[in-house]
Specification:
mainly beta, eight-stranded mixed β-sheet, four-stranded antiparallel β-sheet, 11% helix
């Protein structure tokens, strides 16, 4: 009689005698082994059907490797039971551990308070506990999450801020932080600032809590006339003049009375490119600096004898100031005090100018209208003087000298006919010459910017006391062109700004007296005017934007804003 391989069940053949006891023995063996397997599987009640099926297959594979259980010794059978029990314990513990793996559920909500149920349910919150959840409804503010009734905990991002933007059907992962008592959102998209689409140009996109959105800022609306002069935005340079702090509205006129108690008169005033009025006061002959924007007046004192200084120039920011006293000596303000340059004699009262930073002073020595005049340079940092060029005869027009941004200076030469010469500072070479348009000069203003289409503007007459005073453009080919702007002889005053770009003319007549603003290198028409003045004084200084001016021999500054 044959038997089975695994459990030695008897298998009678056709000619064998069948014994009922053998059949009973077989049945008992089968029952015993099935009971063992049933007990092993039954002790894992938490497993679902798929998990139990997988376990049965695993046990069968294990049994195949171990061999016939009936042939095992008692010790080996006990070891097998212990191993199966240990496996059950590990499976049960793993299923309930939300630190090593994340539970999952779909939320319910009451406003921004969300809840989920896990299986199996955790008994408490523990550090590192992870939960995955699908959101059933959008949030509208700071959110909380309650897991299996253990208590609501705030949802925070990695920087400690409340999570406020949960979206319906979104799946989120959070980890419990026992130190702070909050759930921390994982896999954030990054931090976002306060920029909105209106802050970002319409050709770019912006990352937000709600995803990428299109900017709406239209920079094509930028116009030079809408941007302050000196400011460039997205490649557009502004042309709008500065509006003083106390100006409100449009087309306004105002006089700033400078409270110089020692005198009502001023001498040799200038307005720098940074809107500082610098002048010498009558009486004490001190130098004053007035901040047009902040309305502050500072007395810088005096280093020269008590006499009227005859020349004044300054750096664009007003930090360096040069003063030439009536004896021809020159002093400079170094930001703290006055220092002597060592220059003791100069020709022509107003023939000085300096570089925009004030580091170099250019001046003339010799005899007005005579021979042997020299154009010289004083370097402030080194304190030394050098000769730039020799000029046969100085024309002697007060205030004519002008620095040009290509490294040259303009001077007047008393030739026949009289000429204006542009002299390169580095080597004294004459790089341009232009004939003076008329014999009787009222004023000439050379442009500092070499990029202008003209060298400068001339105002004067060829007839002297009769006829008209005309304005001429000084062309870059050495000729001059008369403009349509003219006034009766000797009846007004004419002044150019520091760079020469703007001009102001005060015609004869009044009160009230008027000021006309010009930009003759661009248009021969008056670009603005003010007819509210009740003081008949010549224009003596003009601001860079062309709409602030000082008058001669009077301690006042005037401003006019011509834009609507």
């Amino acid at each position: 009689m044959k038997t089975t391989t695994n459990y030695s069940l008897k298998k009678p053949e056709l000619n064998d005698y069948v014994n009922v006891n053998d059949l009973n023995d077989n049945a008992d063996k089968i029952d015993t082994e099935l009971k063992k397997l049933s007990d092993a599987i039954g002790n894992l009640p938490d497993l679902n059907t798929n998990e139990k099926t997988a376990l049965v297959l695993s046990i069968n594979e294990l049994l195949t490797k171990i061999g016939n259980i009936s042939s095992l010794t008692t010790d080996k059978k006990n070891n097998l039971v212990d191993a199966l029990n240990e496996l059950k314990q590990h499976l049960t513990a793993h299923q309930a551990c939300y630190v090593q793996h994340h539970g999952f559920g779909v939320t319910t909500n009451n406003g921004n308070a969300y809840s989920i149920t896990l299986n199996p349910a955790p008994s408490s919150y523990v550090d590192g506990m992870g939960v995955k959840f699908k959101v059933n409804a959008d949030s509208t503010g700071a959110c909380t999450l309650n897991v299996d009734g253990l208590g609501a905990k705030r949802l925070k991002n990695s920087t400690g801020n409340d999570v406020t933007n949960l979206k319906a059907n979104g799946i989120y992962t959070v980890i419990y932080n026992a130190t702070t008592g909050n759930f921390i959102l994982q896999g954030e998209r990054g931090e976002y600032g306060t920029a909105t689409p209106a802050d970002v140009r319409n050709t770019k996109t912006l990352g937000t809590e709600n995803g990428v959105v299109q900017g709406t800022l239209d920079l094509s609306l930028l116009l030079p006339s809408n941007i302050k002069k000196g400011i460039t935005i997205d490649g557009v340079s502004g042309t709008l003049p500065y509006l003083p702090n106390d100006f409100i509205g449009a087309r306004l006129y105002k006089k700033d009375t400078l409270l110089v108690t020692t005198a009502s008169s001023i001498y040799n005033n200038i307005i720098t490119a940074n809107n500082l009025l610098i002048f010498i006061a009558g009486g004490n002959y001190n130098c004053y600096r007035y901040d047009i924007v902040n309305k502050t007046l500072t007395n810088l004192g005096i280093a020269w004898p008590l006499n009227v200084p005859m020349g004044l120039c300054a750096s664009d920011d007003g930090s360096v100031i040069y003063v030439r006293d009536s004896n021809g000596a020159v002093y400079y303000w170094n930001g703290v005090s006055w220092v002597s340059t060592g220059i003791t004699a100069m020709v022509a009262p107003g023939t000085i100018c300096c570089s925009p930073d004030g580091g170099e002073l250019y001046y003339l020595t010799g005899t007005t209208g005579g021979m042997g005049t020299l154009l010289k340079k004083f370097v402030k940092s080194a304190g030394n003087v050098s000769t730039i060029a020799a000029i046969d005869k100085l024309l002697g027009e007060q205030g004519l000298m002008r620095y040009v941004d290509d490294g040259s200076v303009w001077v007047g030469v008393n030739e026949s006919p009289a000429t204006y010469k542009k002299i390169r500072i580095s080597d004294g070479v004459i790089v341009a010459t232009i004939n003076r348009p008329g014999a009787f000069t009222r004023n000439v203003c050379m442009f500092r910017k070499s990029s202008y289409p003209y060298y400068g503007v001339y105002y004067g007459s060829s007839t002297g006391s009769d006829g008209l005073d005309n304005v001429y453009m000084l062309n870059k080919d050495g000729t001059s062109t008369q403009t349509s702007y003219s006034v009766p002889y000797g009846r007004g005053s004419f002044m150019g700004s520091l760079t020469g770009e703007f001009q102001a003319f005060k015609p004869y007549g009044g009160p009230p007296y008027s000021i006309q603003f010009l930009q003759l290198q661009k248009t021969q028409s008056v670009i603005a005017s003010c007819s509210e003045l009740y003081i008949n004084q010549p224009v003596s200084a003009l601001s860079e934007d062309g709409y602030r001016w000082a008058v001669d021999s009077y301690a006042a500054l005037y401003s006019y804003y011509p834009y609507q």
